[in-house]
Amino acid sequence: MGREMAEWFASGRIVDVIVSLVALEALLLVGVRLRFGRGPRPAALLSNLASGAALMLAVRAALTGADWPVVAAWLLAALFAHLTEMMIRFR
Questions:
Q1: Cβ 61 vs Cβ 70: under 8 Å
Q2: What's the pLDDT at 57?
Q3: What is the pTM of this model?
Q4: Which residue among 1, 62, 70, 77 is least crowded, i.e. fewest CB within 10 A of its CB?
Q5: Count of the separate structural domains present in the chain
């Protein structure tokens, strides 16, 4: 089992699973908001989840040996998503 888990990390597949779960979470929470009118506002929610997903993709890039500009680009995307969320929440 340890070797299989090491392969999941080395290949970045673990991050793929986590990002897929984040996408599922987004669909579920937006669906709850549309159906029941409760829960976080979609813009704030999606920018928050985008920030986390971009951080996870930066980790994936680093795990798989991507060049530093790829990792930096994902980190920059996370920053922009986070700043967007902050602007939405502080309005």
A1: yes
A2: 97
A3: 0.89
A4: 1
A5: 1
